TrEMBL record:
Source superkingdom: Bacteria
Keyword presence, Transferase: yes
Protein name (Swiss-Prot/TrEMBL): Glycosyl transferase
Lineage summary: Bacteria, Pseudomonadati, Pseudomonadota, Alphaproteobacteria, Sphingomonadales
InterPro entries attached to this UniProt entry: Nucleotide-diphossugar_trans
Molecular function per GO: transferase activity
Native source species: Novosphingobium sediminis
Keywords: Transferase
Length: 289
């Protein structure tokens, strides 16, 4: 039997965090432990009182820093670490499904779920809406196991024996945009990455606690340039992300969606492009913006 631990990095959303941790108790195969990593005690709220009895760990702020702290804490203690965003709702058989897949093929290095829905693209869901979507739609997903080039960071399970020496890049600060691509493209050199409709859930896409539009806009350019130079993002994906985000921010800035700061993102894009032209682009600049 594999040891499976859930790791959640969080900041600024204690009520949502408690709700998500409580929902873990619905799993038909309970995890062997839950680790929550946050910059301050206030970020935990009362999550420690959940029936899941999570381990609460403090860390400097930043998704990559917090996830690295979880890896440090769980080293030698688990076979699989399941990284979840603090607004991800798993289907009830999620942990059972990843255990079965990892056990069936020792060559699998990482698994990400095929989502029932992603609130990032639809303005966000409530937890109850997520549960309803899972109830109505999860059974219709394709159960086939599909190869992946990289995993989606909102829900990704990693085989710890193949993670030796790999860490999230802390040069991608705060929200760590594309940190999942960076890490899992490296992990893919050691084993197979897959997804399947057997592993699923809903990403709520809750906006509170995320980085500002201006900072994210800067990251949309700076992080791509950084990862291209590092060699951990395919050129085709880098081009697609760059042009897709720049075009969306430019075209929608005059008439933005209610939940997206398009003007801020565009301003960040333009500042990053100016820094690129001047040879001084750096993802870490958002910490001073």
């Amino acid at each position: 039997m594999l040891r499976i631990h859930i790791a959640i990095a969080t900041v600024g959303r204690p009520a949502l965090l408690r709700e998500m941790v409580d929902l873990i108790a619905r799993q038909t195969r309970l995890p062997d432990g839950v680790v929550i990593v946050a910059p301050s005690q206030a970020d935990f709220g009362d999550a420690g009182e959940s029936a899941m009895r999570p381990e609460l760990i403090l860390s400097p702020k930043g998704l990559c820093r917090q996830r690295n702290r979880a890896l440090e804490v769980l080293d030698e203690r688990t076979d699989v670490v399941l990284f979840l965003d603090d607004d991800f709702v798993m289907a009830a058989d999620y942990c059972a499904a990843i255990e079965a897949l990892f056990a069936s093929d020792p060559g699998i290095a990482g698994i990400t779920g095929n989502l029932v829905a992603d609130g990032v693209r639809r303005g966000g869901f409530t937890a109850q809406q997520a549960l309803d979507l899972i109830e109505s739609d999860a059974s219709g997903l394709d159960p086939a196991v599909i190869p992946r080039e990289a995993l989606y960071g909102c829900n990704m399970a990693l085989r710890m024996s193949l993670m030796r020496g790999l860490r999230f890049d802390e040069a991608l600060p705060l929200y760590g945009w594309q940190e999942d691509i960076d890490l899992t493209m490296q992990l893919a050199r050691r084993g197979r990455l897959v997804s399947s409709g057997r592993v699923t859930g809903v990403h709520l896409g809750v906006r509170g606690g995320r980085t500002s539009g201006r900072r994210l806009g800067y990251s949309q350019v700076a992080n791509i340039v950084y990862l291209l130079r590092k060699g951990t993002i395919p050129r085709w994906l880098a081009k697609r992300l760059f042009w897709q985000n720049l075009a969306a921010n430019l075209l929608r800035a005059p008439f933005p969606e209610p939940h997206i700061d398009r003007a801020g993102r565009l301003a960040g894009n333009l500042r990053a492009l100016a820094d690129l032209a001047l040879g001084r682009i750096d993802p870490r600049k958002i910490e001073r913006m």
